[in-house]
Automatic annotation (TrEMBL):
<dbReference type="InterPro" id="IPR036271">
    <property type="entry name" value="Tet_transcr_reg_TetR-rel_C_sf"/>
</dbReference>
<dbReference type="Pfam" id="PF16925">
    <property type="entry name" value="TetR_C_13"/>
</dbReference>
<dbReference type="InterPro" id="IPR009057">
    <property type="entry name" value="Homeodomain-like_sf"/>
</dbReference>
<dbReference type="InterPro" id="IPR011075">
    <property type="entry name" value="TetR_C"/>
</dbReference>
<protein>
    <submittedName>
        <fullName>TetR family transcriptional regulator</fullName>
    </submittedName>
</protein>
<dbReference type="InterPro" id="IPR001647">
    <property type="entry name" value="HTH_TetR"/>
</dbReference>
<dbReference type="GO" id="GO:0003677">
    <property type="term" value="F:DNA binding"/>
</dbReference>
<keyword id="KW-0805">Transcription regulation</keyword>
<keyword id="KW-0238">DNA-binding</keyword>
<keyword id="KW-0804">Transcription</keyword>
<dbReference type="Pfam" id="PF00440">
    <property type="entry name" value="TetR_N"/>
</dbReference>
<feature type="domain" description="HTH tetR-type">
    <location>
        <begin position="5"/>
        <end position="65"/>
    </location>
</feature>
<feature type="DNA-binding region" description="H-T-H motif">
    <location>
        <begin position="28"/>
        <end position="47"/>
    </location>
</feature>
């Protein structure tokens, strides 16, 4: 890896948690220089603008979240257990392997939907990939007779994504973790019913 590539990676690693917690609009250049210890010139010598740093930071946070979740899915045997992994992570203290600030989809999507088309597109793509992965799991569950053959895999995947993201949104917005836990319990019951 070249020195420039290492510097870019360093900038992303240091700014990704800030973007994930404060959002695009809330993250300032001074936040980035303070986190990295670099000058404005050093940051913008490696990235054309704040948009590029934000996009790279989102990608970094997404990779970090996926790696953690996929590793957790590998620890369980059945499809239903794999589908429940995200519900079981809710409300637990996040390990270092998980992005600081929580789910980058939820943190980035609402802000970017009207203000940042490139970030919005990244979030939309991530949701589509999550949906396709979930559909594949459900279809595998149908083939191995763990999930009912009359299950609409796409509908079930979209329902699961909405319930999981909704639980996080409601809990974080109201400040009432119990609300999210109750929705996650309903999500687990939904998975069991498939």
């Amino acid at each position: 890896m070249s020195k420039a590539e290492k510097t870019k990676e360093f900038i992303v690693e240091k700014t990704a948690p800030i973007f994930n917690k404060k959002g695009f609009a809330g993250t300032s250049l001074s936040d980035m220089t303070e986190a990295t210890g670099l000058t404005k010139g050093s940051i913008y010598g490696n990235f054309a603008n704040k948009d590029e740093v934000a996009l790279a930071s989102f990608d970094y946070n997404l990779r970090k979240m996926r790696s953690f979740i996929y590793a957790e899915e590998e620890k369980v045997e059945t499809i239903k257990e794999k589908l429940m992994v995200r519900t079981r992570l809710f409300g637990k203290e996040r390990p270092l392997a998980y992005p600081e600030g929580g789910c980058p989809l939820l943190n980035t999507g609402p802000e970017a939907d009207d203000t940042h088309p490139a970030l919005r597109a990244r979030v939309a793509d991530a949701i589509e990939r999550w949906k396709e992965r979930t559909i594949s799991m459900i279809e595998e569950g149908i083939r191995n007779k763990e999930i009912s053959p009359d299950t609409d895999a796409e509908q079930a995947a979209l329902t699961l994504i909405s319930m999981i993201q909704g639980a996080i949104f409601v809990a974080r917005t109201t400040g009432k973790l119990e609300y999210g836990k109750r929705v996650m319990e309903s999500t687990r019951k939904y998975i069991e019913s498939l």
